[in-house]
Design goal:
Layout lengths: L7 H10 L5 H8 L9 E5 L6 H10 L10 E7 L2 E7 L3 E5 L7 H17 L5 E7 L6 H15 L5 E8 L7 H4 L2 E5 L5 H13 L8 H9 L7 H17 L7 H13 L4 H14 L8 H14 L6 H17 L1
Parallel strand pairs: 1-6, 1-7, 4-5, 5-6
Antiparallel strand pairs: 2-3, 3-4
Length: 325
């Protein structure tokens, strides 16, 4: 049977058996035992390489229960609720789930964490912020104020552990307070070695082996997420270069929905659109300033104060109008 990992212990135990990032062990050993001397930490790397597991291994060093204690708490704001996983030493906040009211949500979450930690005998904790790369810009603007507040707090000790796919978007004020740790991609040789070890644990009599074979047969190596994303961006570029009168709302909306369904990086999409406009000689001395301004305005407002799809629709429509005039 394939095991589902829902508890902190599961991740730790699996990592102990198959440790894909042994170099992190040296780093964990070098961390101070006193959390008051611990720096905030940023773990960054590509998706699916084990950043969360390594974060738990770091946190385990400061857990008196070795992360065996696990609980969920509920945070409520008007018309919404949010659940946080917590241990005896840390709290987990998934930034991607906070939505457009992230700033309000975070304030409530933070206050509740402070109340809990203040009531404990050991008044220290780590706040793990997952998916930091999709943080709302309003929340990012004020995040440093929370970090700074905790740095000079004499009553409780709060440290932050940010998990993200990149760090370039983070302001220097936050970067300067953190120890930045890159999680490397897992080499194919190492991955194959561990897969062979796992395969040996399955016997030929295991009835589920047939199920694995069936699942494997569904995989099409000619299709990758990258190729699908490239196709979506190409469709949008072609649509933009056509006459604005030929674009139907439903067709445009379908393409935009695909951007979100396949998790296309919007910044990369915008870059490709502008690149195609350059290659097609659609940018002139007259319209380039307007297009750059609209691009800046889009990136500033996107996923910030209204539905993300609205901003994408508006940007594509306005850009098309500009290059047609």
């Amino acid at each position: 049977m394939i095991k589902c990992y829902n508890h902190f212990e599961d991740y730790i135990q699996t990592s102990d058996v198959n440790n894909f990032h042994p170099k992190i062990d040296t780093l964990i050993d070098s961390l101070p035992n006193d959390m008051g001397n611990l720096h905030n930490i940023i773990l960054y790397g590509k998706p699916g390489i084990g950043k969360y597991t390594q974060a738990l291994r770091i946190i385990k060093k400061f857990s008196s229960s070795d992360l065996k204690y696990e609980k969920r708490i509920q945070v409520c704001v008007p018309k919404s609720e949010y659940f946080i996983k917590m241990s005896d030493i840390h709290f987990e906040v998934d930034i991607s789930l906070l939505g457009c009211n992230a700033k309000i949500f975070w304030h409530e979450i933070y206050n509740q964490i402070v109340d809990i930690v203040s009531s404990r005998p050991i008044k220290s904790c780590i706040i793990m912020c997952k998916n930091m790369h999709v943080i709302n810009s309003d929340l990012l603007d004020v995040m440093y104020s929370y970090i700074q507040r905790d740095t000079f707090n004499d009553r409780i000790c709060i440290r932050y552990l940010f998990i993200t796919e990149s760090v370039s978007f983070l302001p220097d004020t936050i970067l300067n307070t953190c120890e930045i740790i890159g999680i490397e991609n897992i080499p194919d040789k190492t991955l194959k070695k561990h897969v062979k070890q796992i395969n040996k644990s399955f016997t030929s009599n295991d009835k589920s082996n047939g199920q694995y074979a069936n699942i494997k047969s569904l995989y099409d190596p000619t299709i990758s997420q990258t190729s699908v994303q490239d196709t979506i961006i190409e469709n949008i570029c072609n649509l933009l270069l056509d006459d604005i009168e030929k674009i139907t709302f439903s067709q445009l909306r379908d393409y935009i929905y695909e951007l979100f369904i396949y998790e296309v990086d919007i910044a990369s999409c915008i870059w490709e659109i502008v690149s195609q406009l350059v290659k097609s000689n659609k940018l002139t001395e007259t319209n380039i300033e307007m297009i750059m301004y609209e691009t800046y305005k889009f990136l500033r407002l996107f996923n910030n104060n209204y539905r993300p799809i609205y901003h994408v629709e508006r940007y594509l429509y306005v850009i098309n109008k500009i290059i047609r005039n």
